[in-house]
Specification:
Layout (H helix, E strand, L loop, with lengths): L2 H4 L1 E2 L10 H11 L3 E5 L5 E6 H9 L14 E2 L4 E2 L4 H11 L3 E5 L5 E6 H9 L7 H11 L8 E6 L5 E6 L4 E2 L2 E2 L8
Parallel strand pairs: 5-6
Antiparallel strand pairs: 1-7, 2-3, 3-4, 6-7, 8-9, 10-11
Length: 184
């Protein structure tokens, strides 16, 4: 199964000069928790999540008129529509991100895959995604980001973590977190 098979196609995208309020309105109206941020050619340059709005805008005392560029996570991680779904799952788990934009070869946003899309694929009749895969992805993504990050120690045949070891470096596989916002 490929990313294109389960992605939500043509998500609403915003530009960096729009406001946090506009991003929140899109999330409300589209019933989503993330909006890709694109340039004039629809190339993904960042992403803004509901958590970015809560932490970087509201909790920081900024108004709804703050520009998205001030609260977004720049340089969002992306996958290709042709990527194998297991590679997408692995990337989401490794980076601890809940949603990932799907882009063409030019970096233009074609869609987005969320945890919910993966779960729906597991519940479909063709069963290209197992419930165990969903559980592993969810567990990896949901590890706490404060103080005692759980670090994968071993992986299975598909590259998913199976044994976990506590550490306190707040990193993924011993590295500093790859994205600036939780739950991207």
């Amino acid at each position: 199964m490929r990313a294109r098979d389960i992605m939500t196609k043509d998500p609403v995208c915003l530009r960096r000069d729009e406001t946090a309020r506009r991003a929140a309105e899109v999330m409300r109206d589209c019933d989503c928790g993330v909006v890709p941020i694109v340039d004039d050619n629809r190339r993904v340059i960042g992403i803004v999540t509901d958590r970015d709005l809560a932490i970087r805008a509201l909790a920081a005392g900024k108004s709804g008129d703050v520009r998205i560029s001030e609260v977004m996570t720049p340089a969002a991680h992306c996958c290709s529509a042709d990527d194998d779904l297991r590679d997408v799952e692995r990337k989401m788990a490794d980076l601890q991100i809940r949603r990932i934009p799907i882009c063409d070869a030019g970096g233009r946003c074609l869609g987005i895959i969320s945890q919910a899309d993966i779960a729906r694929a597991a519940s479909s009749s063709d069963k290209n995604v197992t419930e165990e895969e969903v559980a592993v992805v969810l567990e990896s993504i949901s590890q706490p980001s404060h103080g005692t990050r759980v670090r994968p120690e071993t992986t299975d045949q598909q590259g998913f973590s199976r044994n976990f070891k506590k550490n306190s470096n707040c990193g993924v596989r011993g590295k500093k977190r790859a994205t600036a916002g939780c739950g991207v």
